[in-house]
Design goal:
Length: about 375
Amino acid sequence: MHLYLHIPFCAAKCPYCDFNSVAGREDEYGRYVDALLTEVRRCPRGPYDTLFIGGGTPSILPPAMLARLLAGVRDHVTLAPDYEWTSEANPGSADAERFRVLVEHGVNRLSLGIQSTHDRHLRFLGRVHDAAEAERALALACAAAPRVSADLIMGLPGQTDAELLADLDLYRRHRLDHASVYHLTYEPGTEFHARRARGELTEIDAETSRRQFDLLWDELAALGLDAYETSNFARSGQESRHNLAYWRQRDYQAVGAGAVSTWAGVRTTREKHSGRYIEAIASGGDAAWRVETLTPTERLRECWMLGLRLKEGVDTTRADDLGDRAARWRPRADAMIGQGLLEEDGRMLRLTRRGRPVQDEVTVWMMP
Ligand code: SF4
């Protein structure tokens, strides 16, 4: 079983961010933790294989509040013997005390939003930390927790190959076993999206982007970090088991504003606004904003979409179990295999490295 807890609060809203996150609601923190714990107590007791506290910025909560949240979770749920419990943290609110509280209550994996090791890019991204703070936070995290991952963003306007390589060097310096490297995207509704539309931002060109992906894959492979998912790299056995469960379409519980759970074929999206979420839960409601029963076609489309993100690929037997037919997907797969974009290994169908940069196109082609 898997449980996700969402903390929507951040020190400032980054101009590229389309997550459910908000700045300046410090007065809600305490009541939000109450609401989260109320929801947690409505979840099955477990045992849970993985838990994940994401955001937003979970590390923005004061240490005593983090302790109350985690103790409350532990009071209700049981953990599987080899459970994985991740908490995200950002360098701007990372300190030894918070990491100690997290680890003492059972967190055994920290995921840090580093994003860049260059101050000019951190400023561009609107981050509240600088490169020196990122470095300190990473060192503290490594001293506190057995497993640490760091997020970076690539594809930044004006980012040079040398800067990308310098960013990637942090995985070597801190001997990290897990890396998440996301390409900057311009999501509708974000400030960057509007600035690009006004011509104030120039997207990185396709050729540079392709070249930097090659650099990324080669560099991380040389460090022993294997691309097990489109944007995620790990030493064998160090993959994020929580995220793998999501990509493999397992059921998961979720609590918090905007959190999405999928349980027994029903997907529930909670109220996104933290204030309204708190009110709904405090008055005995479930804060459900949308409840959908997934249709077989939706599950099948997700099977292809999520499977093609993974190095292991799509399990075609599972796709057929979900209602697909080889008569539909086989000719399409053969065309992609012929172009060197897909490869087949038994019942698994996966993108080749050549296919990775055109993942979206291949996915659209393969989906029912
Ligand atoms: S810190 Fe993360 S979640 Fe918060 S606004 Fe920035 S990108 Fe979004």
